[in-house]
Design a protein that fits this description.
- The complex is a heterodimer of chains A (327) and B (448).
- Chain A has 327 residues and is mostly helical.
- Chain A contains 14 helices and no strands.
- Chain A is globular.
- The two termini of chain A are 22 Å apart.
- Chain B has helices spanning 23-46, 69-85, 101-110, 125-130, 138-143, 153-157, 181-186, 198-212, 224-233, 248-263, 270-278, 285-288, 301-306, 341-353, 355-361, 371-380, 384-397, 411-426, 432-447; strands at 59-66, 89-96, 117-120, 160-161, 164-165, 168-173, 175-180, 239-240, 243-244, 293-297, 312-315, 327-334.
- In chain B, the strands form 4 sheets. In chain B, strands 2-1-3-12-6 form a 5-stranded mixed sheet, with helices on both faces. In chain B, strands 10-7-11 form a 3-stranded antiparallel sheet. A two-stranded antiparallel sheet of chain B has the order 4-5.
- In chain B, strand 8 and strand 9 form a beta hairpin.
- In chain B, helix 14 packs across helix 15 (355-361).
- The chains are: A mainly alpha (327), B alpha+beta (448).
- Chains A and B meet through helix 1, helix 2, helix 9, helix 11 and helix 13 of A and helix 1, helix 3, helix 11 and helix 18 of B.
- Chain B: InterPro entries: Bact_solute-bd_prot1, SBP.
């Protein structure tokens, strides 16, 4: 969703001029074709309107009200920017959640991508059984944001969990990882990084696209493994890296399930896992401040749009497309 | 999602082909929906008073509660009994675990589709009542359609919010300190008793830790019900009207009391305390073996018992037991806009005052509210854990004090802020005074 919200300065102007031109063209035929198009489109369109567009606009409206989910719409009070003001000036737990989420995304996303790329490079060779390994590494991301996985994680990383038993074999006394406010978020990061399968598969596909001639040419020029990686693989892979980076960043910011399960829906211990979306959920459903939660959601959407836009604008400098012109 | 076509700095291809929607019309249409929908819900919610004159007209009553399979079976049996006596009334039952129950109830209500009759607890009763979602039962109580004559007065009064009877107690319980009897017997340690002071309780717990290596008591500083009882013993309360009934100094004392206990090793370490704070009754420390005592509700005894082989005992919280009260374990409330109010009231009355129904339901939702029927049920019960909790409740009932007011709007936030502040102190990230100040500050904005 956020991908399409990226600013698009080049298209807008000419686009509208163009539709203008279409109208003046062979209008009638176009019109009936258009109608048929809309008819075929209608199931999707109705879905988009019913479950996405209208609720979104409603939530925008509600973000300016004191809607508490129990009061009928007809009685909600317009409060102007009060929700936004409260968020930015009077709600320490809001800023705490922002910090937690940014910390999480800034650390977990690069590490996850690095792990994905590293394993993809290893699995890009043609050795026997590689298919099995690809499958095994992909498995954790299939389980995705599942509740079951988060529960397993909690049990593995509490004081008497499997991880500490493993450490004790080496004479190390572990910590109550998930129940320690200094470590709970880090445990979540490890879970996120471990689920690197999806970007790994995409990296693998990208690696397959790199023409082998380039490596041959590079080795003729005397480039070693590392040089080849730096000067051939990375540039050729940059569109894929870019794609993964954008997607995973958005995913990272939206992390919810694991934090919810790990903290039993509280964001604890001591708010250490209070991710943005979890805070939003608690605000809306536990504390019944749906108007305020809607405001949070819109700020969140804008923030992700801005971050994505920044990625796109910096992408110019490091993303190379193999079809010649760098767009 | 395909890597072969990575997104470019250009916009997605589709956009260029899209005919621009007539934006103004679209927005106007959306606005119309935004405005019309609430009107429709609003209208549906108030256009029903005159009708339903025929008492034998078929009625389908929707009813929603939280709980497990056992509760579902008992409740459905009791409702089937009602249908047998009133063949025109059938039920649409929905139930689920406590986790997520209130999210769903709120969503149903917001969608204009709330159940006619629903289960609610004192964490949310005031929230719903203050928003005019629950029917005021007072007139039905006065006319006798809802018979509370056999209820302890303090029990039905604990459902009164702002002068309106917002829900009727579905059962009674009270705060209970549950301890591991087997462990104490094995080590020849004395059992704690009702009426011990807090200081004595902590000293006892310290001794348990030293002897058994199992921490003597779960540190309840994050537990609002323990704080509440303690405050009442100091002549304070959790809430006074729409205000807090305590100050930062009170909470500082409370946090310091437990800091002392932790320092003396009467309690587990912070991370284990957190486990107890954040998990449901099946993982309470007294049944997971991580502490010899847990601070729970007395009606949770059978649930606790199911999760341990050890024998458990239950007493009142430390200090003067008159700070405790006959608490409604949960309530039945009627949705204000229900089309079947009279039937819903009659069903609540039936579930509470019909001998057969009450016998069927047993003590699953707490002790029966009707005292006459409670006696019958308690004579009938064979489950030892339940017998024990009835006996304790019966003993304590005579010592109970007045009910406090039902927690006010914002209570759920107050509860979570207490956990946060107490854990800050437990993990040593704040002094008791700092944590208390932070808590009171957060509470003020939560209930504002």
């Amino acid at each position: 969703m956020a991908l399409t919200t990226a600013p698009d300065p080049t298209r807008r102007g000419p686009g509208s001029a163009r539709t203008h031109a279409d109208r003046r063209g062979p209008g009638r035929l176009r019109h009936s074709e258009g109608l048929a198009g809309y008819v075929f489109l209608s199931p999707w369109l109705i879905g988009l309107m019913g479950v996405t567009a209208i609720p979104m606009l409603l939530s925008l409206y509600l973000s300016f009200t004191n809607y508490d989910i129990l009061t009928p719409f007809s009685e909600v009070e317009w409060v102007g920017l009060a929700n936004y003001e409260r968020m930015f000036t009077a709600d320490p737990s809001y800023w705490h959640a922002v910090r937690v989420t940014v910390t999480f995304a800034v650390i977990a996303v690069p590490l996850k991508l690095a792990a994905a790329l590293g394993v993809a490079l290893l699995l890009n060779r043609a050795w026997r059984g590689v298919g099995l390994f690809r499958g095994l590494f992909y498995l954790p991301s299939l389980l995705g944001g599942s509740v079951a996985l988060a529960i397993v994680w909690v049990n593995m990383f509490n004081r008497d969990g499997a991880f500490n038993s493993l450490l004790s074999l080496f004479g190390i006394t572990g910590k109550p990882w998930v129940n320690d406010p200094d470590w709970a978020l880090e445990t979540l990061m490890v879970l996120a990084i471990w689920q690197f399968g999806a970007p790994m598969v995409i990296f693998l596909a990208g690696l397959k696209q790199v023409p082998t001639e380039l490596y041959e040419a590079a080795s003729v020029d005397g480039a070693g493994r590392f040089r080849q990686f730096r000067n051939v693989t990375l540039p050729m892979l940059s569109p894929v890296i870019f794609f993964n980076l954008v997607l995973e960043t958005i995913n990272g910011f939206q992390g919810f399930t694991a934090a919810f399960v790990l903290s039993n829906g509280t964001g604890g211990p001591v708010d250490s896992t209070l991710m943005y979306t979890l805070n939003l959920y608690i605000t809306g459903f536990t504390e019944l401040n749906m108007g305020y939660a809607s405001a949070m959601a819109w700020v969140f959407l804008l923030a992700i749009a801005v971050i994505t836009a920044i990625f796109f604008s910096t992408g110019r400098f490091w993303v190379h497309y193999s079809d010649g012109e760098d767009r | 999602m395909h890597p072969a076509t990575p997104p470019t700095t250009d916009a997605p291809v589709g956009r260029a082909h899209r005919t621009p929607l007539p934006r103004r019309h679209l927005l106007r249409g959306l606005l119309a929906v935004t405005v019309a929908a609430p009107l429709m819900f609003g209208a549906a919610a108030c256009g029903d008073d005159g009708g339903a004159a025929d008492p034998n007209a078929p009625v389908k009553l929707s009813i929603f509660w939280w709980g497990g399979d056992a509760r579902a079976k008992l409740t459905e049996d009791a409702l089937a009994l009602y249908t047998k006596k009133h063949p025109n009334v059938t039920f649409e039952t929905t139930w689920q675990a406590n986790q997520g129950y209130f999210d769903k109830l709120a969503t149903l209500t917001a969608g204009g589709n709330p159940p006619d009759l629903f289960q609610i607890d004192d964490n949310y009763l005031a929230e719903y009542a203050a928003r005019n979602t629950t029917l005021d039962l007072t007139s039905y109580q006065e006319s006798g359609k809802l018979d509370t004559s056999k209820f302890p007065k303090s029990l039905w009064q604990y459902g009164v919010v702002d002068g309106k009877l917002a829900g009727l107690a579905a059962g009674e319980n009270t705060q209970g300190l549950v301890y591991n009897k087997t462990l104490l017997t094995k080590h020849n340690l004395p059992e704690p008793t009702t009426g011990m002071s807090w200081e004595q309780h902590i000293a006892w717990a310290e001794q348990v830790t030293a002897t058994t290596k199992v921490p003597g008591t779960q540190d309840p500083s994050a537990d609002y019900k323990a704080l509440w009882v303690w405050l009442r013993q100091q002549g304070k309360d959790l809430y006074k009207g729409k205000e807090l009934g305590f100050t930062a100094e009170d909470v500082t004392k409370w946090f310091e009391l437990w800091k002392g206990a932790r320092d003396r090793k009467a309690t587990p370490t912070a991370d284990v305390i957190h486990e107890g704070n954040s998990s449901d009754v099946t993982k309470q420390l007294v049944v997971t073996g991580k502490s010899a005592t847990s601070w729970v509700w007395a009606n949770q005894m059978p649930d606790l018992k199911k999760n341990t082989k050890d024998e458990l005992g239950v007493i009142a919280y430390p200090g003067d037991p008159s700070a405790q009260w006959a608490r409604a374990s949960m309530y039945w409330s009627v949705f204000k806009g229900s089309k079947n109010k009279d039937v819903a009231i009659d069903v609540i009355n039936f579930l509470n005052n019909d001998l057969e129904a009450v016998k069927l339901l047993g003590t699953d939702r707490g002790l029966p509210s009707n005292l006459d029927l409670r006696r019958v049920v308690s004579d009938d019960t064979t489950d030892p854990a339940m017998k024990q909790s009835i006996a304790v409740e019966a003993e304590l009932t005579q010592k109970f004090g007045e009910s406090p007011q039902v927690p006010i709007k914002g209570h759920s936030k107050v509860k979570s802020e207490l956990i946060k502040a107490a854990e800050n102190a437990q993990y040593g990230r704040a002094t008791p005074a700092e944590a208390a100040a932070q808590f009171v500050e957060a509470c003020k904005s939560a209930i504002a």
